[in-house]
Design a protein that fits this description.
This protein is of the alpha+beta class. The protein has 3 domains: about 5-150, DNA methylase specificity domains (Adenine-n6-DNA-methyltransferase TaqI, Chain A, domain 2), CATH 3.90.220.20; about 150-195 and about 355-400; about 200-355, DNA methylase specificity domains (Adenine-n6-DNA-methyltransferase TaqI, Chain A, domain 2), CATH 3.90.220. The chain has helices spanning about 60-65, 85, 115-120, 125-130, 140-145, 155-190, 255-260, 310-320, 325, 345-350, 355-395, and strands spanning about 5-10, 15, 30, 35, 45, 55, 75-80, 90, 95-100, 100-105, 145-150, 200-205, 215, 235, 255, 265-270, 275, 285, 295, 300-305, 350-355. The strands form 6 sheets. It has a 5-stranded mixed sheet. A hairpin with a 7-residue loop joins strand 17 (about 275) and strand 18 (about 285). Helix 6 packs across helix 8 (about 310-320). The chain starts with 5 loop residues before the first strand and ends in a 7-residue tail after the last helix.
Length: about 400
């Protein structure tokens, strides 16, 4: 990268603001070119599929408003509003008219490839360029002065190919991961959605392990303060470990071992079902088999099941996917989701209990699907890291990540 010249963006592109938005109903039609607005700009190429619902500009609007049609490959950067600091970017995948709140950058394709400039723009941070943390607006003069590393066109094509492949891997992994995780609710409802007559109706309380503190929340706020958390010691679990409906290690929180000794009754064990009961209520995860000794906060309710009666993965599925169980989490007066749960509510939740072998079969299938989803997560993360590393190498590390 050091041998590539750094050129001002205006040296390799035509930079201007977009068009004022047409206001008259006669300025729009069903078969004209689309009019791209601020909400159409994220981190994407704007292709026909993404603008099917956009306003279409009529020839009358072009004549009366003097609109400029921007070609395929035009780079769009917000120059006003909150999107300035969100670093939203887009590239036109078809000819279109563009609102004036967007800066339009038409690459000189004799010097720079549109896709190369698009990838560069995803790391371009005008706040860093202006040496500020926030911009109320983005003047065209600042965009024009942005520095772009400019390798030869053949090298640009190689870079674009690598970054496009990484993005495609990430896109496919994300899509496959979403499909994999969508299978589990369908699997649950297909297996348990039509309960047999001999499945008894029980409560969570009925299937708790016969032990002291089989169900527990964390200590009250006055007993455990955030200021007491340390970088090392016994992990303390919170909402962020459960919010995605699967157990994940999140922001590390620990208590010194000597402090934890007073809170051992709040320990979370492998295989426990963990439910969020404050803030974002009703999210459910199962503690993994390799869970180290740890405890929960007051935002969580953890309970240990009698494994001769109920499998944790079945109970998790019932709490998440069974319509009858979910309905019990709603207020009886107005049908709204309750803002907070407590141990009494969790204990009283009713469900139909299928035979344990059927629960175990579901759990085994769900575990295989989640294992596949985790592999896809890893593939997406690897692609993300590869793209970010390559982009940082090509365009510098001071801008935004890809």
């Amino acid at each position: 990268m050091s041998s590539w010249p750094q050129v001002d963006l205006e040296e390799i592109s035509d930079i201007s603001a977009g068009n004022p938005a047409p206001q008259d109903a006669n300025h729009f039609c069903v078969d004209g070119h689309p009019f791209v607005r601020m909400q159409d700009v994220g981190r994407k190429h704007i292709d026909p599929a993404l603008v099917e619902t956009a306003d279409r500009v009529s020839p009358l609007a072009v004549r009366e408003c003097g609109l400029r049609l921007y070609p395929v490959g035009t780079l769009l950067i917000p120059k006003s509003g909150a999107s300035v600091n969100l670093n939203h970017r887009a590239m036109l995948g078809q000819d279109a008219y563009v609102v004036s709140h967007l800066a339009t950058i038409i690459p000189d394709q004799r010097k720079v490839l549109p896709s190369y400039l698009f990838h560069w723009s995803q790391r371009y941070d005008p706040r860093s360029q202006a040496q500020v943390t926030s911009l109320p607006s983005l003047p065209l003069s600042l965009i024009k002065a942005a520095k772009v590393p400019l390798p030869p066109l053949d090298e640009q094509r190689r870079i674009v190919g690598l970054l496009d492949r990484a993005a495609e891997i990430r896109r496919r992994a994300d899509a496959a991961r979403g499909r994999a995780r969508a299978i589990i609710p369908a699997l649950f409802l297909n297996t348990f959605g039509d309960p047999a007559e001999d499945w008894s109706e029980i409560t969570i309380d009925d299937i708790l392990a016969k032990q002291v503190n089989a169900i527990r929340t964390g200590p009250f706020g006055s007993q455990l303060k955030h200021s007491e958390f340390t970088d090392e010691g016994v992990p303390v679990l919170g909402i962020d470990n459960v919010v995605d409906n699967e157990f994940k290690w999140a922001k590390p929180r620990h208590l010194p071992r000597e402090k934890y000794e007073a809170f051992k009754r709040f320990r979370v064990f492998p295989g426990d079902v963990i439910v969020t009961i404050m803030g974002t209520t009703g999210r459910v995860a199962v503690a993994p088999d390799n869970l180290p000794e740890c405890m929960n906060t007051k935002h969580l309710c953890a309970f240990t099941l009698d494994r001769s009666l109920a499998h944790p993965r079945f109970v998790q599925g019932a709490l998440l996917f069974d319509p009858g169980v979910r309905a019990q989490a709603r207020g009886k007066a107005n049908g709204q989701i309750m803002e907070g749960w407590n141990m009494g509510i969790v204990r009283s939740i009713r469900l139909r209990l299928p035979p344990l072998p059927l629960q175990s079969a579901f759990a085994e299938q769900a575990s295989r699907i989640e294992s596949l989803a985790r592999h896809l997560d890893a593939a997406a993360a690897k692609a993300e890291a590869m793209a970010a590393g390559l982009s940082a190498e090509m365009f510098g590390s001071s801008g935004t990540s890809v």
